[in-house]
Amino acid sequence: MDFAQRAIDIAHDSVAEGGLPFGTVIVKDGEILAEGSNLVPQTHDPTDHAEIRAIREACRKLGTEYLTGCTVYAIAHPCPMCLGALYHCAPDEVVFMATRESTAPYLSGGHEKYYDPSSFYGEYAKPWDQRRLPMRLDSRDSAVAVYKLFQEKKS
């Protein structure tokens, strides 16, 4: 089976049904473990991306938060949120069929205050206090203490 084409087909079906052009397939041992399409407009959930949906399903099926031994096929280069999730679940490989540069002309529209696919990655490279999204550090030792407790419990 052509798993890359399956991800493209999922995205095509999503567009045909009035959704967004994203599709993801996760494969393990030559079999499809999970699939996902972007349902953000339908669910009004900004995290309901194709990769996230497929990762959640695959991890539930495997009973772990890791996708060791898996290949993820995504129609386009993952957004920063999905890329972060992919780093966390650590699949063996991520295959994408379109670059950010090739898809950006079809996704941009300025409909969201901070959403600009062409600049997401540049924004994340900036120090937190220089990003367009206003951020403020309210430093607390008690917040760090939670991480210390976590480390102690792990040992």
From TrEMBL:
Biological process annotations from GO: purine nucleoside catabolic process
A Pfam family reported for this protein in Swiss-Prot or TrEMBL: dCMP_cyt_deam_1
In terms of superkingdom, the source organism counts as Bacteria
**InterPro entries xrefs:** APOBEC/CMP_deaminase_Zn-bd, CMP_dCMP_dom, Cytidine_deaminase-like
Q: Which GO terms describe its molecular function?
A: guanosine deaminase activity; zinc ion binding
| Domain CMP/dCMP-type deaminase residue range list | 1-114
Which keywords belong to this entry?
Metal-binding, Zinc
Q: Which PANTHER family match?
A: CMP_DCMP-TYPE DEAMINASE DOMAIN-CONTAINING PROTEIN, CYTOSINE DEAMINASE FAMILY MEMBER
Question: In its UniProt entry, what is this protein called?
Answer: tRNA-specific adenosine deaminase
Its source organism is Mycobacterium dioxanotrophicus
